[in-house]
Design a protein that fits this description.
Elements lengths: L2 E4 L2 E6 L2 E5 L9 H23 L4 E13 L5 E13 L4 H14 L1 H6 L4 E10 L3
Parallel strand pairs: 5-6
Antiparallel strand pairs: 1-2, 2-3, 4-5
Helix pairs in contact: 1-2
């Protein structure tokens, strides 16, 4: 990965497109946003693969991330709460929680920060009528 300096931050050209990173949100994604997005994105994609493998069909999944930062320690991320809202038919909360625990163990981003950032996951289901 090659990062290039620009006036208000840095830029990287990835296969999917340009990514601008800056401490000023007007000029790019803030580093903490990218950190939270990679943790939520990794967790969700692993979770979804597990659900597909078990043939658990879901119609939609939304993840809300609440972030706690410590202003006394360079605004470091201390905690991320990921709340999953899963919509579908005949959903089993117990099975979903078990699969979420398996996803956590297999998500490289969560595993990379688990000793320095507290990550809590919760979920709720929305049963759709046919």
């Amino acid at each position: 990965m090659d990062f290039h300096m620009k006036e208000e931050g840095i830029r990287i050209d990835l296969g999917y497109g340009m990514l601008d990173i800056s401490s000023d949100e007007a000029h790019g994604f803030r580093p903490f946003q990218l950190m939270v997005a990679s943790i939520a994105g990794c967790s969700a994609s692993v979770f979804r693969k597990i659900l597909k493998k078990q043939r658990i069909d879901i119609e939609d999944m939304t993840i809300t991330a609440e972030v706690e930062r410590n202003p006394d320690q360079a605004n470091r991320i201390e905690r991320i709460d990921l709340h999953y809202i899963i919509k579908g038919h005949h959903l089993d909360d117990e099975k979903l929680y078990k699969n979420l625990a398996v996803a956590r163990k297999n998500c490289s981003m969560v595993r990379s920060v688990e000793d320095s950032i507290t990550i809590e996951e919760s979920l709720e289901t929305v049963e759709l009528s046919r």
